[in-house]
Amino acid sequence: MASSCWGLSESLCDFPSLSNKSLRLMRKTIDDGFRDLVRQFSDQIDAATRPLQWFLNTLETLFTGTPWFVMLVLILAAVWFASRSVKIAVGTGAALLAIGFFGLWEDTMTTLAMVTVATLISIVLGLPIGILAARSDRAQRVIMPVLDVMQTLPSFVYLIPVVVIFGIGKVPGLIAVVIYATPPMIRLTNLGIRLVDKEVIEAADAFGSSPRQKLWNVQLPLALPTLMTGVNQTIMMSLAMVVVASMVGVGGLGKNVLQAINNQFFTMGFLNGFALVAIAIAFDRASQAFGKRLQKHAEVLDD
Amino acid sequence: MTETDLTQTLSPDEEETVPGISIRNLYKIFGPHPERYVSAVREGMTKTELNRKHHHSLGLRDITTDLPAGKISVIMGLSGSGKSTLLRHINGLIAPTAGEVLIDGEDVAKMSPEALRAFRRHKTAMVFQNFALLPHRTVLENAVYGLDIQGEPRASSTEKAQCWIERVGLKGYENRYPAQLSGGMQQRVGLARALTNDAPILLMDEAFSALDPLIRMDMQTVLLDIQKEVSKTIVFITHDLDEALRLGDKIVILRAGEISQQGLGEEIVLHPANDYVRAFVKEVNRGRVVRLRSIARPKPSGEDWPGLQLPGATTLEGAAHQLLDAPGGSMATVLARNGSARGVVSMDDVMRGMLSQS
Ligand SMILES: Nc1ncnc2c1ncn2[C@@H]1O[C@H](COP(=O)(O)OP(=O)(O)OP(=O)(O)O)[C@@H](O)[C@H]1O
Ligand SMILES: [Mg+2]
């Protein structure tokens, strides 16, 4: 190969990398060390994930165990109360009926349970971290690069340590989804709070607000539209990740898609894919309409 | 020449005032290390030099003034002259680099965060140029905002707010949101919010500058009417001299962070201290600003007091009308604050006072 190298010597031609032997040694040391560490703390890790496991299982049993027509009514009611839009409710109803008709009801409920839990956890984690980032420039400087890594690192890569630490199953899948779905919540919380009108913040200070009063009376309410976009993004990210999460043992629509890929089941792949799209669109529209409804006060009366 | 003639008149019969806010040798330098440059600025380093050599911005230099309690003081100056910066020192939104802001004998700059918060809640209220209302709260909820922060229950705060909402002319709009109101109405909400707080000090940063001229006059009238009842220590910022003269008992003119001149409105109009101030007062309608007490002369010995009696606070324009209508005589007696005869003016004096432009 040195021949294609302008006739230079080998050390200038090939990149002077570590030798294969030392690379192998490095990988082995790190991997083994990591594995030992995980083994050592396995009890604690188990204890830590048990509430998640319980939460996820409860919701899944609830969603799949409830008769389909009851679930259908509940979901439509939720969509209606969020959006107050007949169009969105009817669309969601039609999508769910089609899903059931093609035999995907139970898998869809499993996926819904997963997405619900992942979204709730992402909000619970993302909101306070976003508030922290908005309050301190130093915190922001630390948090933002971490978010960049979380969002750009190929999801398959962080599945590896997740699996090493938590093994195969629903909870590691959930954790992978949460890692992917939390960054938009953090980012948009931070952004929303930072974009609040400076003069209104000054008014809050001038009237003697404590930091907590300022947060609850001014910053969060005025950041609400952006926060709602964050929630919306989080739901979309969770739905996008369920296929990847199924690689570590999460059931539902994602698992079907994965099977279809492995076996080249064209129809099955598309049916499940469309089911995911249908849910995504329904949730997107409902959550956006909800966000708009919360901004009622911004509308001008026409009298 | 006429100018010097006028200065030889009686002393202007000033009202006794108590300082409500005393600002002492206040310096503000913006930048990462302001403390390093205070002494250089004290010794006369200019704003440009500080900016060019050290990349720090000089906000205020050696401001010393007493703003009278229970009166309206106006801070005036061009854009960037440091008006907002000065105002924000009064409620501690900006901390000085050096100097004191004394209110009831206490230095605002030295208060702990808790003390400062309590001070802002109970002693001050503020009105903002762009209203700074909370968009998700109704007019009524905006008005009770200050009392909410103080922890006052809504039952009593609503009652107080309702009273001020009616006073500023927003009855019937209590449940509207700010976005549904015109600019003038929004600023009425801002005023109601500040007044509901019932604080002795009211800070207004270009509160009427965003409003069109007619609504602006309207709001000035509302403020003056309310001030007659409440007698708060109001600090009002504007870059409009007419507004300053209409509202201000005392006027402080700032230029590039320094006090260019301070005093009563008519003092400034009659005796501008420098070209900067002269440029401001050039276009002023003196007839509406200058008052008889400033141009009254001692009664020439051997003559009687003229029959027409006018209070010292009468504007020259008002006096001219009265003198024209008065039967047989172009002289009037000027009364002191206590109602006693203090001096005399002639129609000529009044005319000269209105026209004189050195
Ligand atoms: N946070 C800051 N950092 C640096 N410089 C500042 C800061 N705040 C104000 N300044 C500078 O201080 C000067 C005075 O500003 P200030 O806002 O007090 O002016 P102003 O008289 O209120 O003007 P305007 O009429 O435009 O509101 C300006 O030159 C401005 O650039
Ligand atoms: Mg200003």
TrEMBL record, chain A:
List the GO biological process terms. Answer: choline transport; glycine betaine transport
Gene3D superfamilies under this entry? MetI-like
Entry GO MF terms: amine transmembrane transporter activity; carnitine transmembrane transporter activity
User: Could you list the residue ranges that cross the membrane?
Assistant: 62-81, 88-105, 111-134, 155-181, 235-253, 265-283
Respond yes or no to whether keyword Membrane is given for this record.
yes
**Record's bilayer topology term:** Multi-pass membrane protein
* A cellular component annotation (GO) from this entry: ATP-binding cassette (ABC) transporter complex
* UniProt subcellular location: Cell membrane
Q: What is this protein called?
A: Proline/glycine betaine ABC transporter permease
Q: Which UniProt keywords apply?
A: Cell membrane, Membrane, Transmembrane, Transmembrane helix, Transport
Domain ABC transmembrane type-1, chain residue ranges per copy: 108-287
Work out whether the entry's keyword set contains Transmembrane helix: yes
Supply the Pfam families for this chain.
BPD_transp_1 (PF00528)
**UniProt xrefs under PROSITE patterns:** ABC_TM1 (PS50928)
UniProtKB/TrEMBL annotation, chain B:
| Alphabetized SMART domains for the sequence | AAA (SM00382)
Cite the EC number.
7.6.2.9
- Keyword line: ATP-binding, Cell inner membrane, Cell membrane, Membrane, Nucleotide-binding, Transport
This entry carries the following GO cellular component terms, namely: plasma membrane
Reaction catalysed by this chain? a quaternary ammonium(out) + ATP + H2O = a quaternary ammonium(in) + ADP + phosphate + H(+)
Q: What membrane topology was assigned to this protein in its record? A: Peripheral membrane protein
For this chain, one GO molecular function annotation is: ATP hydrolysis activity
Question: Where's it found, cell-wise?
Answer: Cell inner membrane
Query: Domain named ABC transporter: which ranges?
Result: 45-281
The source's domain of life comes to Bacteria
Q: Which InterPro entries match?
A: AAA+_ATPase (IPR003593), ABC_osmolyte_uptake_ATP-bind (IPR051921), ABC_transporter-like_ATP-bd (IPR003439), ABC_transporter-like_CS (IPR017871), Gly-betaine_transp_ATP-bd (IPR005892), P-loop_NTPase (IPR027417)
What class does this enzyme belong to in the EC scheme? Answer: translocase
Chief site of localization:
membrane
Entry annotated with the keyword Nucleotide-binding? yes
Entry's Gene Ontology BP terms? amino acid transport; glycine betaine transport; response to osmotic stress
UniProt lists the family membership as follows: Belongs to the ABC transporter superfamily.
Q: What does the record note on quaternary structure?
A: The complex is probably composed of two ATP-binding proteins, two transmembrane proteins and a solute-binding protein.
Q: What is this protein called?
A: Quaternary amine transport ATP-binding protein
Q: Which organism is it from?
A: Paenirhodobacter ferrireducens
